[in-house]
Amino acid sequence: MAHIPDGVLAAPVLIGGGVVTLGLLTVALRRLDDQALPQAAVLSAAFFVISLISIPIGMTSVHLLLNGLMGLLLGWLAVPAILIALALQAVFFGHGGLLSLGVNTLNLAVPALLCGVLLRPWLHARGSGLAARPSPRRAFWVGALAGFVATWLTGLAVALALLLSGQALGFAARAIALAYVPLAGLEAVITATVLAFLVRVEPRLLGVPQEAEPEGTDT
Amino acid sequence: MNRLMKLLFEPPCRRRGAYSLLALLWLWLLPTSALYAHNLRVFATAEGAWIQGQVYYAGGGAAHHAQVHIYDQANAVVAELTPDAAGEFRWQAEAPQSYRIVADTGEGHRGEWTLAASELASAFPSPEPILQSPSAAQTSPSDDDAPAVLDPKSAASAIGCSGAALDARIEQALARQLRPLREDLARAEDRLALRDLLGGIGWIFGVTGLALWWRGRRA
After folding, report:
1. Are A179 and A188 in contact (CB under 8 A)?
2. How far, in Å, are A143, B54, B116, B177, B184 from residue B174 at the CA level?
3. Which residues of chain B are within 8 Å of residue A43 when distances are taken between CB atoms?
């Protein structure tokens, strides 16, 4: 449902979404850090694959989004990472539309950005190096919160986009927001698990300040 | 729950094996089940003048809560239908023209199907029946070994109906026979192709490589 196809949304919503996405993309590209690019590519690919795979549940089917995880790990880079994956999904699989690319990116990237800006600092303990590494328990709960909030906000954004286009009336919008709750729970568990794993294996991925390079060693 | 926590928070050296095992298990399970993108689909064929179709989620169940609109060639809505519990709908076409069938669930899902005019042609015989040109029968090879050419007219008179009606009945029977095949084809198209999936991942890494090269060139 986060991938709204063409022909559903009204023109002002499409244009507005496109313009705001372009703005966010500009900011993200100005803040681009080369070091983070490979990581963004890996997460973009993960998002590309996992949000194509739908799990049949009852009469409908759901798919994971992972935008909370992307926001926590990538921050601003989540915007181009999501945009590229969405564009490829639309071109290769007709999953989401090309005209609605702006709105779809916005729906997924804004919650991701919020996670990156608001929740990411919670991952950092005081100090630097290994001391700044959060405990796995802390990473677990921050991840759970990010997974839940990002998915649910995406659901709200989709409902809002449909509401503004006159597609879904108040009742349907509320139903959409409710439908995202179980998915948000699932996202919470997965994001939390990934974070608890990463913090023990590769805490640098969480943006924990690196240890100062010992002097006199060749690297 | 306690065991899960223990699994997550224990030192990695002890649990890395378990994680790799889980990852392997997932990778192994992945290709065994067919993968579908999360999309709403419409499938429709004509049987006589009746357009029969189905609305469903790719890889999932019927979408009985969808609204089906049928547009004619002038892009005007000629019918508004609600599918039954199995997601199926029926509508009697008014003219032998192509129809666009659009399903919308009101929650951001939309599917489309175009029914070609040729499918309906048999149900709407043209006012002046096409004359069986006698030359066609006469120019058949005079070879005695050649299989006897069945003259549609004589066959029709044997059954006791006009040539046009027979044509219509043959076309309808064929349409009925071909329907499952066409349905299978449409469903096969819903299935994600692994090569597209891998192609998308390749694109993502390619774009990232390009970005890194571009920025490295300027430095």
Report:
1. no
2. 57, 19, 16, 5, 16
3. none
Chains A, B: CB contacts within 8 A come to 137
What are the angstrom distances between the C-alpha of A163 and each of A59, A152, A167, B112?
A: 24, 16, 6, 22
Distance in angstroms (rounded) separating the CA atoms of residues B67 and A174: 19
Q: Which CATH number fits domain B40-123+166-191: 2.60.40.10, 3.30.70.360, 2.40.50.140, 3.40.50.2300?
A: 2.60.40.10
Question: What is the tens place of the pLDDT at every residue in B27-59?
Answer: 555 544 556 666 788 999 888 888 999 998 876
Structural Rg of chain A based on CA atoms: 18
Asked if B207 reaches chain A (Cβ–Cβ under 8 Å), the answer is yes
A115 touches A206 (CB < 8 A): no
B217 in A contact zone (CB under 8 Å): no
Angle at the Cα of B38 (from B69 to A56), degrees rounded to 5? 110
Choosing among 3.20.20.140, 2.40.50.140, 3.20.20.150, 1.10.1760.20, the CATH entry for A11-206 is: 1.10.1760.20
Phi and psi at A155, nearest 5°, equal -60, -45
CB contact under 8 A, B37 and A94: yes
Q: Hey, what are A74's tokens?
A: 């990538």
- Which of B6, B13, B208, B215 to probe the A interface (max A CBs under 10 A)? B208
Q: Convert the pLDDT of each residue in A53-80 to its tens digit.
A: 776 665 556 788 899 999 999 999 999 9
